[in-house]
Structure formats: structure tokens, C-alpha cells
Amino acid sequence: MKFSTVFLTAMATHQATAFSPAPINSATKSLTLSAATLEAAPAAADNAADVPAAKEFATMDMGVEKDFAVGDGFVKDSERIQPGRYNDKANSIAIPFLPRPTPLDGSHAGDYGFDPLGFSETFDLYTMQEAEIRHARLAMLAVVGWPMSELLAPDWMLQNGCAPSVLNGVNPLSFLAIAGFLGAAGFFEFKTSLRSNVGTPMGKIHEKDMSAIWEFGVAGDYNWDPLNLYSAAGNDFKGRKGLRDVEISHGRMAMLGITYFAAWEALTGNPIVENSMFFHPNALLPALVAGYAAWSQVYEIGPLNEYPIQVKYTNEGEMKLKRFQNGIADTIEQNAETTEKIQETFNKLDSQFGIMEKVTALPGQINEKVRSTYKYW
After folding, report:
1. Does 64 score more than 50 pLDDT?
2. What is the pLDDT of residues 352-373, one digit of tens each?
3. Distance CA 364, CA 366 (A)
4. Cis peptide before 201, with omega less than 30 degrees from 0?
5. Which of 30, 120, 155, 274 has the most neighbouring CB atoms within 10 Å?
6. How far is it, in rounded angstroms, from Cα 344 to Cα 351?
């Protein structure tokens, strides 16, 4: 009886101990006290330090793009021009046998790696771009105004029929007009220099487009687009850069053209519009235009960024050329058959009526009749 009582008491005590809370050890007690005194244990401090890093890594790993924090100034890479367009090309596109200057990586409009003297690596690139676009715009105006003045202006405004210029000379009235224009251009130059276009509406757009390249926006930006043509090729950074490409390309050709005008008149003393197919009615210019149009239907110039530059067929150029050649061959063949038929018919008539003999004798008979009308011959 006693043994069974002791056994049951021991079992009850064991079960109560199994379901009771675990005793607090010294480590747990130490941790609790540390938390109460706001002194974190070393392990807890390490874990707390890892939390911000983990959050930051997660944010960086979720596709947030570089260079800009998320906010009002955030710009996606897909919405701005990216640098390094020509980084995979060691040589210049414009001059394939020369190395490409490092600053000319295709990020800017009109960049074909043309810098044989290395100015882009010596001088401020933005300043040089600003100077180029200003000269290009003036040249586009001058290349139209120069010949128009020689065609339409009165003689007293010209110099022996040539437009007034530094090399041709100027009269007092022309000098005042030129000086006034240069003064206005100089004032405009001062007001728009020193990268003062960043705060304008168009400047902010350019700043966004060029934010991956630099903070200066676009050279030559005067916030002037009264006809809203700047978005004609697309209201995004690609369309805007495309129009800037067109502008600077035309400006470069205009600078070459106005240089030719001035040199020609200085060397020859004759107006540029004199004996020129561009300014007087003639058949040569339409023929050249038609020839170029026909040539461009068959051939095209290969990419300028590939060396060597090649002239190759267009997509349907070879087929069009063969069709043209076959048409010429068929025409010649048809004309040959027609010529043979005409020759056969003429031979039959000649054998019947002696046409060739009569035609051969006709000049002599005319000569005799003319002589017979004047007795002194």
C-alpha cells in the first residue's frame, strides 16, 4: 500500500514538471536585463545592423536605375540618351583610318567621330558645340541670303554685281547694316552664353534627355520653337536628337557652301549666280536630279560606321536594274527586226523604181538648173 502510494505520487510530480515553464538560465536572464537597460547584446546589435543593409540591397535589386534617387528628378534609362553609342568602335566613323576620339562616343547630335586635330580632347566640348551650332545657323541664313542679294538687290548695294562682304568690299550703307547685325548677334551671344538655358522649359526637357551624359542639356538651346516643330519626328529624346542631327548636318553643308561662295567671288571677281545652273533656267540641273533619283533607286551607300564604306544595291535595286537591262535589250531587238523589214521594203522599191539612182543624181540636176538661171556662171 505504501509502495503504490509512493509510485503514484512520483508519477504525478513528473507530469507536473513536464508541463511547467522552463527555468530561466543565466543567458536568458542576461539578455532580459540587457533589454531592460536598453543595452543590446552583441549578437542582437549585429542583427539590427544587418536590417538596413538588407532593405537597401532589396531596393537596389528591384530594377531601380542608377544615377537618380526615386523622386521628382527620377529619369528612366529608357527615357534618356545613353552614353557610349560608339564604344565598340575603335576608329572614327567619318575618317575610318583614324582612331575615334574618346569624348566623341555618339552621345551628341551630329557626332561621327570627326576630330582629326583632337580639339574635343583639349577644349571644353560644350563650348565647341555651342560655337559650331551658332556658326551653322548663321551659315544657313547666309547661304540663302548671299545669292538672293545678287539676284534681287539694286546695283548700288552690290560690289560689281557681287554681294557685299569682307573680301568683296562694302559701301557705307552696307557697312552700317552689317555692323548693326553683328552687334545684335553679339548681344544675343552674350545673353545666351554660359549655359544659361537650363532653367527654361525646353532646357528642362534637354536636361532630362541628357542627364546620363552631363548636366548641361543641349548646346544651342534658346527655348525657341514658335511653330512647335521640335516634336515633328517624335516627342521623345530620340525624335529630338534626330532633328538636331538634321539641323547640324544642314548647317555643316551651309558652312562649306558659304566658304565656297566667298572664295569663288574673291578669286574670279564674278558673282556666284553668274553662269550657274542653280540660279538660271537650264536642262542640266533637272537632268542631274533625274539621274540621281534613278541611281538611288538601284544603289545606296553603306553605313558610314562600317569600314570600308561601300556602294551596294538597295533591297530591290538588283531586280530593278535587271528589269531595265532586259527592257533595253528587248527594245533593241524589236528595233532591229523593224529595221530589217524597212530595209527589205526599200530594196524592193529601189529595184522597181531606181530610187537610189535618182536620189544620187538629184544634187547634180539642181546645180545645173540653178546655173542655167544666170548666164555669167
Report:
1. no
2. 888 888 888 888 888 787 677 6
3. 5
4. no
5. 120
6. 11
